[in-house]
Amino acid sequence: MIKLIISDLDGTLLSEHKSVEAAEIEAIHKAKREQVHFSLASGRMHSEIAAVFQEIGMTGHIVSQNGAFIQTASGQALRSAYFEPAYVHGLMEAGSGFDVLSVICAFDRYMTPSWSPVAEKISRRMFSPLNLQPDALERLGLDLHCSKISYFGPMQELLRLQALIKSTYGSKVDTFISDSDCLDAMPSGISKGSGLAILLDALGLQREETACIGDSFNDVSMFAEVGHSFAMAGSHPDVMRQAKYSVSRVAEAVEWVRQYNKNQ
């Protein structure tokens, strides 16, 4: 029996208006009544994901900032991961050579050292505001800790920057294309997949008891941790090849899980 479904947010559960449609909420609650629990994993902050759970009308396990933070539905923290300050300085310096907006992500806030029209645009699509923090780099390791750096810009620039980070840091920094205009840099070994593995271990769940749904490259690591993986139909072909199934919406995957359980 599949006991847990974990879903990505942007491009997966959230509509183009950044909300959860009624059909998705209905499907999730139907599954919950059948003892199939629902969790969320996203590059977004914990508070943003918690707001989505509030919209759905339930609580659940949360894997936030691409696996940097893991918290159970009961509030137990399973992981908190941060960059060493020297890496943040280097990664921010790398971003300054490209036509991108570099955002420092802490557990509870997004920051950028300088403001621009692009920063204003990005801030409007976040559930939590993007804050101007000119002294962010000076405060690293004191009262500020960075778990992720997000770069926003044209895909061609992001791919060039990704190549530079890989050549400079090798396996010491992991990078993921997490949206059509976003590249995330993470501490080594920190991903949604490693976060999900920790969560499943804490819950005592096996691979075959878990399903996940995603649409981007930062979701691929989750596909490897579960027995039942679903890529959204609009995903990049390289993402779709890593999943067992393809669906047009989360409700479709949830219904598949319900039928699978009934046939067991």
From TrEMBL:
A Gene Ontology molecular function term of the record: phosphatase activity
Signal peptide (residue range): none
GO cellular component, one term: cytosol
Record-given protein name: HAD family phosphatase
Species this protein is from: Paenibacillus thalictri
